[in-house]
């Protein structure tokens, strides 16, 4: 998953804004440091607690242009964010989703929506895909 940042040059350095996420901005003295800061700012912006009901806009893959950089989202953050978004859009609670996935307790499900704990097995990914057929795993993963 990649979001798009527009880079701006100023007298004493650079600043960049994410075009899809209002308020996701960063700055740096060098372009190299700015690129690092864009990844950090993006991941911090999207990394919500597992109890959050926040739905972020998905990346707009049609954005192109001068001074626009594609910035990758950490795959764990992208997965947790996407699962939370799909669950909320279907009007399901975490408890209801855990039950649909055959999980024994709510905590097991909450791990899926927690970017620092998410690590689903292939079996679990298959179950998730059955509940959320619109899930596109290939769009969540990034090539490193």
Description:
This protein is of the alpha+beta class. 41% of the residues lie in helices and 17% in strands. The chain has 6 helices and 4 strands, in the order βββαβααααα. Helix 3 (94-100) crosses helix 4. The longest helix is centred in the N-terminal third of the chain and has 16 residues, at 31-46. It is elongated. The model has no long low-confidence stretch (mean pLDDT 91).
Sequence-ordered SSE layout with sheet pairings:
Layout: E1 2-10, E2 13-18, E3 25-28, H1 31-46, E4 68-72, H2 75-89, H3 94-100, H4 106-112, H5 122-131, H6 137-140
Antiparallel strand pairs: 1-2, 1-4, 2-3
Helix pairs in contact: 3-4
Short descriptors:
434 Repressor (Amino-terminal Domain); alpha+beta; four-stranded antiparallel beta sheet; Double Stranded RNA Binding Domain; 2 domains; elongated; 144 residues
Strand order within the widest sheet? 3-2-1-4
Q: So how many helices? A: 6
Secondary-structure element string: EEEHEHHHHH
Please indicate the count of domains: 2
CATH topology-level fold name of the largest domain: Double Stranded RNA Binding Domain
CATH architecture of the largest domain: 2-Layer Sandwich
Please describe the biggest sheet, giving its number of strands, its sense, and whether it closes into a barrel. 4 strands, antiparallel
Label the overall shape: elongated
Structural class: alpha+beta
Distance between the termini: 12 Å
Average pLDDT rating: 91
Query: Which band does the percent of strand residues land in?
Result: 15-25%
| Fraction in helix | 40-55%
Q: What is the CA-based Rg, rounded?
A: 17 Å
- How many beta-strand runs? 4
């Amino acid at each position: 998953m990649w979001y798009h940042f527009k880079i701006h040059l100023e007298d004493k350095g650079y600043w960049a804004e994410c075009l899809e996420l209002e308020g996701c901005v960063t700055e740096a003295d060098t372009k190299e440091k700015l690129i690092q800061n864009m990844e950090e700012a993006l991941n911090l912006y999207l990394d919500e607690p597992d109890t959050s009901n926040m739905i972020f806009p998905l990346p707009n893959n049609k954005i192109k242009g001068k001074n626009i950089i594609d910035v990758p989202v950490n795959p764990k953050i992208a997965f947790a964010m996407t699962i939370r978004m799909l669950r909320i859009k279907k009007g399901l609670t975490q408890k209801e989703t855990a039950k649909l996935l055959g999980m024994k307790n709510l905590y097991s499900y909450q791990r899926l929506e927690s970017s620092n704990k998410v690590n689903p097995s292939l079996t679990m990914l298959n179950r998730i895909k059955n509940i959320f057929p619109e899930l596109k795993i290939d769009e969540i993963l990034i090539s490193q």
